[in-house]
Amino acid sequence: MLLLWTIVLLSGRAWKLSDDIAIKTEDLTKAYRSFWGRKKVLALNKLNIAIRKGEIFGLLGPNGSGKTTTLKLLLGLIFPTEGRAYVLGEATDDVAIKSRIGFMPEESCFYRFLNADETLDFYGQLFRIPGKERKLRTNRLLTRVGLEFARKRPLKQYSKGMLRRIGIAQALINDPDLIILDEPTSGLDPIGTRETKDLILGLKAQGKTVLLCSHLLSDVQDICDRVAIIDKGELQISGTIGELLANRDIVELLIRNLSKETLMEVERFIQEKQGEVVSIKNSSGTLEDLFLKIVQERRETSWDRSD
Amino acid sequence: MQQILVIAKQTFKEAVRNKILFILITLGVVTICCSVFMPVVGDGREKIKIVESMCFRSITFFGTLAAILLSASSIPTDIDNKVICTITAKPVQRTNIIFGKIIGFVYIIGVLLLIMGSVSYTLIRYTALKQGTQGSSRGLLAREQFDPVNLQITGDSAKKIGNVSWIEGGGKGASVWKFKGLSSKDKNDDLAIEANFLIEGKKRSTGRIPVKIKIINPYSARILTESMEVSRNKPLLLRLNGKSLDGSEELTIVVSPENSGDFLGIRADSLRIFWGEKGFGCNYLKGLTIISTQFLLMVVIAVLGSTFLSLPVNILFCLFVFFCGNITDFMRDLSTVINVIETSEHEHGISGVMQKSNVYLMYLNHIIKKPILLLSYILPDFRYFSVGKYFIDGINIPCKRIFMGFGYAVLYALVCLPISFLVFKRKEIA
Ligand SMILES: Nc1ncnc2c1ncn2[C@@H]1O[C@H](COP(=O)(O)OP(=O)(O)O)[C@@H](O)[C@H]1O
Ligand SMILES: [Mg+2]
Q1: Closest Cα to atom 11, ligand 1: which residue?
Q2: Could you read off the pLDDT of B367-387 as tens digits, one per residue?
Q3: Ligand nearest to C-alpha A44
Q4: Considering only alpha carbons, which residue of chain A is nearest residue B77?
Q5: Alpha carbon distances (Å) from B57 to A6, A157, A239
Q6: What is the mean pLDDT of residues A133-143?
Q7: Mutate to test the pocket of ligand 1, among A28, A29, A68, A186 (most ligand atoms within 8 A of CB)
């Protein structure tokens, strides 16, 4: 009996992911080598994470912590020095499984002389999507990312934000089950960020799995179900946002229409019950909220924002 | 397959929108057209020769340049731009990327050949027509060439130096050339016998020696004897009525110098027979085919380079390969030259200083000679693909040449492509 178990464990293929796991890494390690094979950079050290199907998972970490490296390992663009990873139940060197994955790289890098239509068409063809369907999806995606107005312009005339949008569009051309996004909001203005976040939430609503990495914490906090924080290639902590941020001895109250007298009464009541009031202030909101509010108002008056 | 074609189309589009292809083709066409205005001394045939040679040279030059610049830069540029990241993240086998790129380059070169080839052809025809009206009879030649099937050197005094055999006159030696399979559509045409001999005479100053030529028809046993003079750097020409073959397809030609003390230097291809004429258009197409095979070979090498070299290095690498591939002869000679220096030092042997330089020469021998020799065998030999001389001499290109060139390129590709696949498959696209 024991022998049988060992055999099952040893043969990599026989090992089956439980059905609700989309991505799993096992001691995933990557050391970059210089041209001569010397001087290693340990970009990733024994990473173990598991991402469930249907969740939005955020990989967090400062610049150079190994986020992009992780994603590239998962996509088989680079090869692990040690350890293994499974994506949608297959090892990362399986090419066919990529037809169910959408990837947006860190920098938006496309053929600069193609326009948005041609770009999406090109990637669609790589997925062997039939012509009519390709056209349909191209139209739908360009509307979805708000690039319809610039579909015939070559990408070299695009701004950085527009390139990000086309990046997201090409990642969705194959209607993937798993979407991997590298810094989806970097280089976007607050509106773009908001729209991207909404789009990602929309994907989740469609039942898709999203893995995104970012160094912008606010992005992640809003939308991710679970996060992992890595630094210098090592996993520091992982769990749901709630778990990680739970601070059990402080409670925040948000109250509207509170008169000064009532406030004082509440304060007195809390002190009677041996509680300590740390601070009382008017809710200020974030700069982001303000920005969004102002711009949104202007948008409503001047409809066309495109050019 | 669909993926390969998509990538090929993409590669082609890129080259077109880059305008590099456009610029190269324009420059090529301008160069070709310039050849018409080249001043020439001589008759109409000379003029045509110039135009023909210019056309083929510029097609070769610009085609090679396009093959190198575009195919050496495409993959490295994609890697630099990181476009390759998005492509490899799709369900595309990496070998398909390389296949797609290669087919894309084939499209590109096809377009270049089509444009430059048709312009050249028109120009050559036009020149021939213009020169034809000025009195010269045949402008565009594509004569059928026959090589000897067998060359025998008789006589004891024959000495072989390099690939040249020297025979002495005065009955001390002779060269016997056997031809087989001589045939032509028009039996009444004249056979032209053309010979390029080296000579070494007693009287050096004259620069020519008398030779005896015997033409034997083994079928009817008819023998024709001619006495002629061979000059140092003019080919010997002899015309023979086609009827004198009497329906036979064989001919034996014996050449020997008249006087003892005169030497005739002979190579295997010194004597050729031309009989009959083929269409120029067909010959032209054959020429283009051989040249395009060379381009394909260059593409394969450039792709191999681009799997592990960065853009500028790869372009240098390709230029280097192309340059060396055209001078493999010289590279081999160079290594013999070094050898000669060394042995002569040995013969004279001697002083301490000399001894020392000898050591250096030995050193030089190992450091330079061996690698160069090795390199000359590893690098592709582009002489397989030189067709210029066929057009200058107005010779029909034998089909054997096409197959040889093609076979050589295929063989080379069969070695290079698997290496490219392997390297690219393991390449980290970071
Ligand atoms: N191609 C490469 N060669 C060598 N080192 C690299 C390469 N790519 C990334 N690195 C190194 O690996 C580490 C992690 O990089 P990366 O994964 O890009 O970080 P992040 O995406 O989190 O900002 C960094 O220290 C970086 O310098
Ligand atoms: Mg990164």
Answers
A1: A43
A2: 777 777 788 788 888 888 888
A3: 1
A4: A111
A5: 69, 40, 69
A6: 92
A7: A68
Collect residues with CB below 5 Å from ion ligand 2: A 68, 106
DSSP structure string for B264-323: EEE-TTSEEEEEEE--HHHHHHHHHHHHHHHHHHHHHHHHHHHTTS-HHHHHHHHHHHHH
Out of B2, B14, B91, closest to residue A95 by CB: B91
Contact B120, B59 (CB under 8 A): yes
CA dist A25 and A84 (Å) reads 6
Decide if pLDDT at A302 tops 60: no
CATH 1.10.443.10 fits B143-277, yes or no: no
From chain A, the residues in CB contact with B85 under 8 A are 72, 77, 105, 109
> Could you tell me the pLDDT band of residue A230, with boundaries at 50, 70 and 90?
confident
Supply the pLDDT for residue B195: 82
Q: Which ligand ends up closest to the CA of A67?
A: 1
| Per-residue pLDDT reduced to its tens digit, A24-51 | 999 999 998 877 767 688 889 899 999 9
CA distance A52 to A58: 12
Q: Has residue B191 got a pLDDT over 70?
A: yes
Residues of A in Cβ contact (< 8 Å) with B430:
32, 72, 77-78
- A239, β-bridge pairs: A227
Kindly identify which residue of chain B lies nearest to residue A98, measuring between CA atoms.
B91
At B358, the pLDDT band (50, 70, 90 cuts) reads low
Place of tokens 């020696």: B209
Whether B430 shows a pLDDT value over 70: the answer reads yes
- Cα A106 to averaged position of ligand 1 atoms, centre (Å): 12
Number of CB pairs, chain A paired with chain B, less than 8 A apart: 72
pLDDT on residue B410: 93
Q: Which residues of B are less than 8 Å from A75 in CB distance?
A: 88-89
**Token representation of residue A48:** 């173990």
Q: Report the half-sphere exposure of B319 (CA within 13 A, side-chain side).
A: 11
Distance A187 CA to ligand 2 centre (A): 13
The 8-class DSSP code of residue A127 comes to T
Domains in chain A, please, with CATH?
Answer: 10-245 (3.40.50.300), 260-306 (no CATH)
Compute the distance between CA of residue A44 and CA of residue A235 in angstroms, rounded to an integer. 9
B179 three-class SS: strand
pTM confidence score: 0.81
Which residues partner with A44 through β-bridges?
Answer: A30
CB B82 to CB A109 under 8 A? yes
Do B56 and B144 contact (CB within 8 A), yes or no? no
Looking at the CA of B85, which ligand is closest? 1
Judged against a pLDDT cut of 80, whether residue A77 lies above it is answered with: yes
- Whether A109 sits inside 8 A of B83 (CB atoms) is yes
Q: What angle do CA A286, A289, A291 make, to 5 degrees?
A: 110
Give the span between the Cα atoms of A214 and A291, in whole angstroms. Answer: 22
CA A93 to chain B, closest CA, distance in angstroms equals 10
Residue intervals of chain B classified under CATH 2.60.120.260 are 143-277
Taking contacts as CB-CB distances below 8 angstroms, the residues of chain B near A107 are 82
